C-alpha cells in the first residue's frame, strides 16, 4: 500500500504531543515534513510556512493543519489549490461560513477535507451512543473544566478574536454531545465570562435543548485547578450514564462498562488515510455551529483580567 505522505503545519504542543506519534503508529501514514515558524523535528525537512513547503518541499500528499484557527482557512486553501488532501485540527476555523469555499474546493479537486473532532474517537463515545439509542433520555449535564495554564501555557492566540477561549476545550464536549444524542441540539441561552483584557471567554454556562425539549446544560471553565473535569452526565429511564475523562470511561449507575486506552489521534489518522484513498471529505460543523450560536445569543459578563 502506498503511504500517505503528510506534512504537519504548525508544530506546537498538540502537534508534538499527539500528531507525531499517531502518524508513526498508523499503517499507511508517513510524516514527511514540518512547516512551522518556531519549531522543527530533527531528521525531517523543515519550512517556515505552508507556502514555502508547497513550493520548495519534498513530495507530499497531504497536510495536517495544527496552526491556530485564525490562519487555517488560508493555509487549507493553498494546500487544496496545490492538489493536497487537508486535515484540520479542531476547531476547523474561526467561523462556520469560511468552511463552505474549502468544501467546494475539495470537491472540485477530488481531494479530502477532513474536519477532525478527536474527542469523538475517545473509546467510550460509541458505546455511550449505542446505549443511549435504546433508552429515553431525561436530561444531560456537561461539566468541562480545566486549567488553561496547564493545557495552553503562553498561547496568547487563544484569547484573541477567533481563539475561542474556553470553547477550545469546550467544543470537545459539544462534539461528543452531538455524536451521542439521537437528535440535533441547539443553544437557547448562554452566559459568557470575558476577562477584562481578553477577546475570548474564560468561562461559559450554556442551556441547550432539542426539538422535543430535552433539558441540556453545560458548564465550561478555564480556571479549574487541581483535578480536571471532563464529564457528561445523562439521566435516562434506565439509570444515569456518565462519560468521564473526556469520553474515555463510561459508567452506568456508577458501574464502569467501557474503559479502554486512548487512541483518539490514531483513529483520526486511520480515518484520514481511508478518506484520502477515495478523495472523500468529512466535514461535520455541528459543534462549531453551537459555539457560533453561543457567541451570537450569549450574555457577556466582564470578569477580572487574566494573567498567564
TrEMBL record:
User: What terms describe the molecular function in GO for this protein?
Assistant: nucleotide binding
Q: Where is the signal peptide?
A: none
Q: Which residues form the Gfo/Idh/MocA-like oxidoreductase N-terminal domain?
A: 4-114
**InterPro entries in the record, alphabetically?**
Gfo/Idh/MocA-like_OxRdtase_N, Gfo/Idh/MocA_oxidrdct_glycsds, NAD(P)-bd_dom_sf
Note the Pfam families from the entry. Answer: GFO_IDH_MocA (PF01408)
Q: Which domain of life is it from?
A: Bacteria
Name of the protein this chain belongs to = Gfo/Idh/MocA family oxidoreductase
Say which species the protein is native to: Bradyrhizobium cytisi
Amino acid at each position: 500500500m502506498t503511504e500517505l505522505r503528510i506534512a504537519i503545519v504548525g508544530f506546537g504542543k498538540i502537534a508534538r504531543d499527539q500528531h507525531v506519534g499517531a502518524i508513526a503508529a498508523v499503517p499507511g501514514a508517513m510524516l514527511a515534513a514540518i512547516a512551522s515558524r518556531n519549531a522543527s523535528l530533527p531528521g525531517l525537512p523543515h519550512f517556515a510556512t505552508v507556502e514555502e513547503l508547497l513550493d520548495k518541499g519534498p513530495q507530499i500528499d497531504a497536510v495536517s493543519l495544527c496552526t491556530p484557527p485564525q490562519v487555517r482557512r488560508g493555509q487549507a486553501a493553498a494546500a487544496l489549490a496545490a492538489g493536497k488532501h487537508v486535515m484540520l485540527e479542531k476547531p476547523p476555523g474561526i467561523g462556520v461560513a469560511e468552511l463552505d469555499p474549502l468544501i467546494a474546493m475539495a470537491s472540485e479537486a477530488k481531494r479530502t477535507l477532513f474536519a477532525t473532532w478527536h474527542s469523538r474517537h475517545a473509546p467510550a463515545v460509541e458505546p455511550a451512543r449505542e446505549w443511549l439509542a435504546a433508552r429515553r433520555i431525561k436530561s444531560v449535564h456537561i461539566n468541562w473544566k480545566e486549567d488553561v495554564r496547564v493545557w495552553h501555557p503562553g498561547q496568547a492566540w487563544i484569547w484573541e478574536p477567533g481563539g475561542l477561549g474556553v470553547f477550545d476545550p469546550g467544543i470537545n464536549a459539544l462534539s461528543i454531545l452531538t455524536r451521542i444524542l439521537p437528535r440535533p441540539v441547539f443553544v437557547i441561552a448562554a452566559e459568557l465570562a470575558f476577562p477584562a483584557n481578553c477577546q475570548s471567554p474564560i468561562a461559559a454556562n450554556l442551556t441547550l435543548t432539542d426539538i422535543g425539549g430535552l433539558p441540556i446544560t453545560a458548564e465550561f471553565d478555564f480556571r479549574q485547578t487541581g483535578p480536571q473535569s471532563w464529564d457528561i452526565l445523562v439521566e435516562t429511564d434506565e439509570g444515569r450514564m456518565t462519560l468521564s475523562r473526556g469520553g474515555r470511561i463510561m459508567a452506568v449507575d456508577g458501574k464502569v462498562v467501557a474503559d479502554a486506552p486512548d487512541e483518539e489521534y490514531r483513529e483520526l489518522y486511520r480515518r484520514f488515510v481511508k478518506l484520502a484513498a477515495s478523495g472523500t471529505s468529512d466535514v461535520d460543523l455541528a459543534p462549531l455551529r453551537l459555539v457560533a450560536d453561543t457567541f451570537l445569543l450569549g450574555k457577556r459578563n466582564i470578569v477580572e483580567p487574566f494573567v498567564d
